[in-house]
């Protein structure tokens, strides 16, 4: 049953710890939109950064036109976690902000229960890629406008229209610096995921 | 030590045996409370030789068998054999086995040991085959299930608004 089968002798077996079930959510959005801030506001650990080597298609980049079509790039990805109980742990992964890192998104997003797309109303363009991505992947997601300085430049209706967000996709305003606000934004995503699971059952 | 030096179990031909889905959190030995493992320096990954330690391999052989990559949240746990054989391991393999006495995700190991994600994937698969690490790939059918989602929602709701006086003073 377990990989440690040959070692189920006496006290030794008790030393093998059973890990928690990891549940993953993704925090997406453009560069500098507050993804790492949001993760840091609610994570029980300081957000960790890992650098992952990814392969990206270099088509259209003149300088690389004489090289093979792929090149390896290193991207930084921030993440944090919340221990729900000893058997269950929620991981929050921030996607690298740039659109061209679609490959890396797949690597991070595989298996995620849902995603929160953070929007800065001063730079709406930056989150198109994320909204498109999760719509196409069929991953439950909600859009949350990060209210920098407590102010939002556009109304929710304007943002919904501008981003062409489907009616069923939750849209709200939150503050990435406030733990309770981040918690509530994540809950919207989880409740959407739960509703979808129950609807499918 | 002499007894513990016995060779690791036969490489398991069944790829699923080592990739035990964490499907039943209610059973098994009492897990260690979710405390953060001892602090390990966090910083940029080495740009010099990210894949040297994997002998140039960029994807775990287990990936080819299972047809999918280990998700970044896949949990790694040191086995008793891994702990017993710690002295015979070196460099990154030793670091991983030592760190995973506390269960950790592939992403956490990559960050804490400053290794690329795919290097950790390759080494984790090696160590699993050698019986030194157990690799728990989460079962999406379980993590996406209503009961798990409800538990996560309840757990999140219990988190208070404020962390205390240290936040948002700027």
Automatic annotation (TrEMBL), chain A:
Keywords of the record: ATP-binding, GTP-binding, Hydrolase, Nucleotide-binding
Top-rank taxon: Bacteria
GO molecular function, one term: GTP binding
SUPFAM superfamilies: P-loop containing nucleoside triphosphate hydrolases
The keyword Hydrolase is annotated on this UniProt entry: yes
Family membership: Belongs to the GPN-loop GTPase family.
Protein name as it appears in the record: ATP-binding protein
Native organism taxonomy: Bacteria, Bacillati, Actinomycetota, Actinomycetes, Kitasatosporales
TrEMBL record, chain B:
Region ranges (Disordered): 1-44
Composition-biased stretches (Pro residues): 1-10, 28-42
Segments of skewed composition (Low complexity): 18-27
Name of protein: DUF742 domain-containing protein
